[in-house]
Amino acid sequence: MTRRKDWIWGWLLIAPALVFIFLFTHYPAVMTIGESFWSTPRGGRPSRFVGLHNYERLIHDPTFWQVLGNNVLYAVVTIPASIVLAMVMAVLVNRPFRGRALARMAFFTPTILPLIAVANIWVFFYLPGFGLIDQILGLFGIGQTNLLGSTATALPAVMVVSVWKEAGFFMIFYLAALQAIPPQLVEAARIEGAGRWTIFRRITFPLLMPTTLFVSINAVINAFRLVDHIFILTGGGPDNASSLLLFYIYETSFRYWDTAYGATLTVVLLALLCLLAIGQFFLFDRKVHYR
Amino acid sequence: MFGPMIKGAAGAAALALLAAMPARAADAVNLQFYFPVAVGGGAANVIQSLTDDYEKAHPEVKIDPIYAGSYQDTIAKVITAARGGNAPQIAVALSTDMFTLLDDNLILPFDDYAKGDEGKKWLGGFYPAFMENSQLDGKTYGIPFQRSTPVLYWNKDAFKAAGLNPEKAPQTWAEMAEDAKKLTRRDASGNVTQWGIRIPTQGFPYWLFQGLVAENGGKLANAEGTETYFDSKPVVEALQYLVDLSTKDKAMEPGLTGWGSAPKAFFEGQIAMMWTTTGNLTNVRKNAPFPFGVAMLPKMKSRGAPTGGGNFYLFKGSSPEQLTAAVKFIEWITAPEQSAKWTMATGYVAPRPATWDTPTMQKYAEDFPPVLVARDQLKYAVAELSTHENQRVTQILNDGLEAAITGQKTPEQAMKEAQKKADAILAAYR
Question: Among A34, A80, A153, B197, which is disulfide-ready with B180 (CB 3.0 to 4.6 Å)?
Answer without folding.
Answer: B197
